[in-house]
Amino acid sequence: MRTETAKLFDHVLPKVRGNEYAGSMIREATTSDISKIRSLMQTVPGFWQQWWCDATIAAAIESAHGLAFVWEERSLILGFVCVHDLGFRAYLSELVVDDSVRNQGIATRLVRAVEEVLTGRGQQVLIADVWHEAEPFYKSLGWERPDAMLLRQRLKTDD
After folding, report:
1. How far apart are CA 138 and CA 43, in angstroms?
2. What are phi and psi of 73, to 5 degrees?
3. What is the pTM of this model?
């Protein structure tokens, strides 16, 4: 049986896919994509965190409940976005695009895809913590700084 997100995504894809390359597509991420997603993340300096592992990616995909998508071209994963609908708001936890295909609209299409699915679910707010260098990209999509400030607590582990 197809998930509610997959059905919504069938409706969304025609809106976000325009002008794609032959053989390219946005599709829901699965745990079978983990090694390719990890490789993609590791190509971006400072993106991959030393405490992450394949289980981290698996947990992110599974807890996204249909809101993790990849941009796939000729069996290569060149983009990944992961969002979590938290009820009060949704949180874009990861967005990464391969350096070789940046500035070709892939990140825009991935973000627009999750925005469309979230809108279809009735969600009204999507937030993200982003690298300073990425702020102009998000602003170009109509995002704005919230009135809140982001804080972090590094949790201690036994490792």
Report:
1. 21
2. -140, 120
3. 0.84
